[in-house]
Fold this protein.
Amino acid sequence: MDLIHQLVGRHAGDRVAYIDLDAGELTYRELHDAARRYAVLLRDNGVQSGSRCLMVSDDSVAAVAAVLGMWWHGCVPVPVSPMLRESEIVFMVKDSGAATVHLDAPAAKKQALQQELSSLIQIDGEQVRAGLRDGEADEPAVFAADNEVLVQYTSGSTGTPRGVRHSLAGIEAVLAGFGAQLALRRDDIVVSTAKLSFGYGFGNSLLFPLAAGASTVLLGGVVDPYVVATALNAYRPTVLCSVPRVYAGLVNLTDQVGVDSLRCAVSAGEHLPAELAERFTATFGVPLVNGLGATEVLHIVVATDAARTEPGSTGRAVAGATVTVRDERGELVPDGVDGRLHIASGSVALGYIDRPDATATTFAQGGAYTGDIVHRRPGGDIRHVCRTDDLLNLGGYKISPLEIEKVVRGTDGVADCAVVGEADEDGLQQAVAYAVPVSGVEPEELRRAIVRSMRADLAPFKRPARIEVLDHLPVTSTGKLARFKLRSAGAAT
């Protein structure tokens, strides 16, 4: 498939493809031209076709042009969030073996990364925004079904990022799966709060709208309910893709939100509590589609039907996907019995970069395990129970508590600590840090010190919502940390 023709070329014209809050509107014709110029830039800088190209960028038209330009030149985009720490980004560059890096980050971080990655070919996002020089481009690359065309990073239970290798067949499968169920039209306007650096956002803001010839509003920076409310009022989108905690915030901003333009809203990234789904639909009269996916399967593979949503349901398999529930040995379990969610689909990734053991564990039995515990009801309806590990799911970001604990434990005055996930008043997961002070350290003094450490060493979306100071942490009879006791104590407060 020629991805450029499929996503842009066949729509090339004066219809608006993107609305960038900083750069303004970009038509399909202008987007096609920007992608072509980016491909010329890669070629003229000696970037080889087939290379992986890391892109550090917030959502912007420059970022979309970069992804498309990389595909045009036959390269593999590796989009990552500029909110990550410099050490995390450098790790991903080295782990992926990227030949070039597109840097579009805050000035201080960009300068530090430019120095750290000086041996690589670098492209500045500002250069793209200012306009790339013209040149004769090669024909857009044509990928085979099993070619790697995209790498996205996810964190495992250890917190070590893993590069997930997606194929062209995977992109085709999500377009024919949830993309077909979403059924975007040329006159749709899409807003997604999930970023391009995550599978959910990549589908929402790039794959689905471009394939349909629709328009997308790109939200840069930190996106909260107030930013979404402003976008809804200003751009009157027809489709909103977000996460449960944003929908919870919108319900509390009823007087400030205009949703009469919306025909559909999609929720994914974390578990959607039944009560929140009912409240949103009752408040705004807009169907809220609940979806479940994973980086390993690129996008949503289980979803409810907008025409007949069932509160509490995670939905059924999208077209082309087969959902089964399995035990620890990989054997099928009967309906009604909790087990591991397994997905067989064309969207299942090729595996992880240089992680043969993890690849063999996750990508097994002809598909992939998503890391969720579910049960299946007669008829195929899937109900979510919990995660299979201690990973925190904060607004769609999968965070290892060990990563947060490392920062807290390294704070002066901390004797011990633990981080667990607890439900807030809307039933959404939040991170709570429990810390034990060194003798003589006052609780408030310790809290302030931990906050300083987190601001210095953790991306904003990884910071706990609450810090509690205890005399000691609960342990089991064998002396192990009893996380379940902390969760129970938090739920009781």
Notes: The mean pLDDT is 91. The chain is about 30% helix and 25% strand. The first strand starts at residue 16 and ends at 20. Residues 400-492 form a domain with the GMP Synthetase; Chain A, domain 3 fold (CATH 3.30.300.30).
